[in-house]
Write a structure and sequence with these properties.
Elements lengths: L7 H61 L5 H71 L3 H12 L2 H7 L3 H6 L3 H14 L6
Helix pairs in contact: 1-2, 2-3, 3-6
Length: about 200
């Protein structure tokens, strides 16, 4: 498998795109990790909320128990403290719920931020690079076999732009059919160059 073009300008572009592609994927992964850490830090608010709610719940319950011992008025005084204790419990529950939501959201967001852009980078950068490698490898195999130049010329006739074909000959198809070696060689060179393979 041939990874890079034999031609300097094309090879330089490929190396630059590889560096950018790897850097973009690395950045996406780093961003996903950073986002995960930020969301987990937000989850600490839920821990504090749960702690404060539980503490308030216990304090109000204890105060209500103490005040309930006061003769005659104890039961009446205790009622608001019981209500406040329940509010503290609700606050603690809200803190637990917030932590659960964060623990579910953090990995999802992190994976979304890291994976989706990475897939786009792979589609734009890696897939064309694989296609190049496969095409260049195929062209090198054709070049090595007998009659390979004819096959390369035929590939050029089926894939090259009409302007490039007409620059070789006014009727490149007819020239290929009659076996015009100079036209076949030029057509084969077009295929070699577009595939990043140098003859010899």
């Amino acid at each position: 498998m041939k990874i890079y073009s034999d031609f300097r300008v094309h090879r330089t572009r490929q190396v630059a795109s590889d560096i950018l592609g790897v850097a973009a994927i690395g950045f996406c992964m780093w961003l996903g990790v950073q986002l995960y850490q930020v969301v987990v830090m937000v989850g600490q608010f839920g821990v504090q909320l749960q702690g404060a709610g539980s503490q308030f719940e216990r304090a109000m319950a204890d105060a209500g128990n103490v005040l309930a011992r006061i003769p005659l008025v104890g039961v009446a005084i205790r009622s608001p403290f019981d209500g406040a204790s329940e509010a503290g419990g609700a606050l603690a529950d809200a803190g637990r719920s917030q932590q659960d939501a964060v623990h579910q959201l953090a990995p999802t967001l992190a994976v979304g931020v890291a994976v989706l852009p990475t897939l786009m980078v792979l589609a734009v950068w890696f897939v064309p690079r694989v296609r190049f490698a496969r095409r260049a490898g195929s062209v090198r195999k054709l070049l090595a076999i007998r009659g390979g130049a004819d096959l390369l010329a035929l590939r050029t006739l089926t894939s090259a732009k009409s302007s490039a074909l007409l620059a070789v000959d006014v009727d490149p198809v007819a020239a290929w059919r009659r076996g015009d070696t100079s036209v076949i060689a030029l057509l084969a060179q077009l295929e070699l160059r577009s595939s990043g393979v140098r003859d010899g």
